[in-house]
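Dear support,

Our group has been running a series of protein-ligand predictions, and this particular one with uracil is the one our PI (initials K.S.) wants archived with full inputs and outputs. We had some confusion internally about which version of the output was final, so please treat the block below as the authoritative record. The input we submitted was:
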Amino acid sequence: MAEESDKVSQIAELNRKMLESSRCCPLGEARTNIVPGEGDPNAKIMFIGEGPGKNEDLQGRPFVGQAGQLLEQLLGEIGLTRDQVYIANVLKCRPPNNRDPLPQEVEACWPWLRQQIEIINPALIVLLGRFAMERFLPGMKISNVRGKVLRRSIPEIGMKVFMPTYHPAAALYHREWTNPLREDFKKIPRILDLLESGGQDSSMDAGTEWDTLEIGNKKQHEQGRLL
Ligand code: URA
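Confirmed final output from the archive:
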């Protein structure tokens, strides 16, 4: 795991490798630019979206279109800028015509995302939309789990804390999702405070701070730890 002081150089090195690796999967053939991700490598929060759209492909930067504007607005409402968090995607290259990512594309890109998570080691990973959620919390339904906080062990990277929520682009399309998305963002500072103070167990006992999640009748504890 990277020391704080190493993270900037390790992310720079990883980005350099990504930029040099032209063709990990067929999406590399059609893209204009690879979109590695950006932000503060020492960030406590990492946002993971789906994949680059047209603007991101042209600029080589994540979330620079309309969805990015909404993301920045929501960050601003909780006192953050995009430079203070880390923003990445499950896919680093744009799928043609913004079609949904294919499972084999998600897996081909996984080593990049895995290394980003390992280096940054964020306290909280916010999963934007169902494709990001599916990579870490397979089989769950975004409308059931959005805004909930889950601790889950992920093969190759270990225990991580996640909050899935709607994708900003989906909220632009389904306007009625904007307020739920906003409410989820508003939880972020409190989640970070609790994680930093190591207070999740006592807040669980208090029974008020954390949503509980059940899949059928099976408590999430059985598959990972629930906050
Ligand atoms: N949608 C995403 O999922 N990622 C981006 O970078 C832009 C739009």
